[in-house]
């Protein structure tokens, strides 16, 4: 079971946390500094954090002491793995999301479709998972925490997109006279609009292909 599968299958529970913790550790991008991690201990701590949130604790109310007690470990055990609560919460969110992976480099179209399809699935997971929606909403309200999430999770996703576009520019597949960040926004903007700004909009299968094909017509050489 992947983190995404767990979020969709058990949106109000924490059954995905153990598999999600492993996926997050291996695939979700760079984590914040700490010691090499034991998967079993990671999972127990992340499950405990999710359980407390599911029971009604807000991010502001959570404490390392309370999380450690719920997980049945010492406070020092948590601090040896995460520098603080913010770092832990970033991995908690990663455990609920489909892990990001590098694009395959097959073609600019295929790579862009893969990236946008991941965005579509994250949008579906957020809509179906009350727990994920709660965590992300509370994180967004905490400016410092959201900035850390952007720096350690969202930035890595953006870089995957930039690498695909730079390769396509070098290969002559798309125009090289536009800023790569602007081109990336042209592709991701429509999906972000539907998943974040207009959450009642449909996210049907094939949406990623439609967006990519439409935008590619305007940026091809």
From TrEMBL:
<dbReference type="Pfam" id="PF16859">
    <property type="entry name" value="TetR_C_11"/>
</dbReference>
<dbReference type="InterPro" id="IPR050109">
    <property type="entry name" value="HTH-type_TetR-like_transc_reg"/>
</dbReference>
<dbReference type="InterPro" id="IPR001647">
    <property type="entry name" value="HTH_TetR"/>
</dbReference>
<keyword id="KW-0238">DNA-binding</keyword>
<keyword id="KW-0805">Transcription regulation</keyword>
<dbReference type="InterPro" id="IPR036271">
    <property type="entry name" value="Tet_transcr_reg_TetR-rel_C_sf"/>
</dbReference>
<feature type="domain" description="HTH tetR-type">
    <location>
        <begin position="39"/>
        <end position="100"/>
    </location>
</feature>
<dbReference type="InterPro" id="IPR009057">
    <property type="entry name" value="Homeodomain-like_sf"/>
</dbReference>
<dbReference type="InterPro" id="IPR011075">
    <property type="entry name" value="TetR_C"/>
</dbReference>
<feature type="DNA-binding region" description="H-T-H motif">
    <location>
        <begin position="63"/>
        <end position="82"/>
    </location>
</feature>
<keyword id="KW-0804">Transcription</keyword>
<protein>
    <submittedName>
        <fullName>Putative regulator</fullName>
    </submittedName>
</protein>
<dbReference type="GO" id="GO:0003700">
    <property type="term" value="F:DNA-binding transcription factor activity"/>
</dbReference>
<dbReference type="Pfam" id="PF00440">
    <property type="entry name" value="TetR_N"/>
</dbReference>
<dbReference type="GO" id="GO:0000976">
    <property type="term" value="F:transcription cis-regulatory region binding"/>
</dbReference>
